[in-house]
Amino acid sequence: MPKLFDEDFDAIELAEGALVLNQAIDPETQVHWAEQEMSRLLKEAELALFQETDEKQRFESFLRLFYHDWGFEGDRDAYFDSANAFIDKVLERRKGIPVSLGALLLYFGRKLGFPLTAITFPTQFLVKVQWHDEDALYINPFNGEYVSKHILSAWLVGHRGPFTQLKESHLKEVDNPTVIGRWLALIKSALLREECYTLALTCSDLALTFEPNDPYEIRDRGFIYQQLDCHKMAQSDFQYFIDQCPDDPASELLKTQVNAMNASQVTLH
């Protein structure tokens, strides 16, 4: 596997890029097994759809294969579980969240020749299918159902308020690096909820490789250092945030924490 920052994410499928990310965060990610499983499922799909001649019907058969026969589904019981963001675990458990299920849907669908693209809608990840000279259709990867613009508008209102209107910019196609960056933030949040601070620290360090001086990411890293009892490093990160964002409400709280850490330091003789 290539190193994360040696990889050209737009030159590979999103699911393959996610595996690169997953392994960079957790070296125990079953990359080889996941690649073999994806290859096996792709061959199975090719055989299952071989006799379908109508392209749209072939696509509908593919959706049934993915969600019914293979059994992929959204994890309704533990949506925020970090396992839902690691491709190998999604393949193993057949459960995920929109971005991980959508990445797999894109991987198999594009390999099979379907006109699919990624959409990072404000509320969740979507997959767009657009047949020649027809309006685009949008699929919710969580359950494989089509979602109308009316439903998307309702989602947007629920997310941003009653006066929000659906715009074409909300349905803009995005490149893989953009999705990978958001995926990284998602994994970090899940790991923090699970108190997996060492892996969360890796996420933060990876994010800072993209944006080395991001004060909010450095603040988050300071919190992680604090949980790992690395108080000197936490203090340094908190102070950086305070200096860069003095008007942010969080700065006052962090000043109190920095002062408390200064007061609790023990002088060694």
Automatic annotation (TrEMBL):
<comment type="similarity">
    <text>Belongs to the UPF0162 family.</text>
</comment>
<dbReference type="Pfam" id="PF13371">
    <property type="entry name" value="TPR_9"/>
</dbReference>
<dbReference type="InterPro" id="IPR011990">
    <property type="entry name" value="TPR-like_helical_dom_sf"/>
</dbReference>
<protein>
    <recommendedName>
        <fullName>Protein SirB1 N-terminal domain-containing protein</fullName>
    </recommendedName>
</protein>
<dbReference type="Pfam" id="PF13369">
    <property type="entry name" value="Transglut_core2"/>
</dbReference>
<dbReference type="InterPro" id="IPR032698">
    <property type="entry name" value="SirB1_N"/>
</dbReference>
<feature type="domain" description="Protein SirB1 N-terminal">
    <location>
        <begin position="34"/>
        <end position="184"/>
    </location>
</feature>
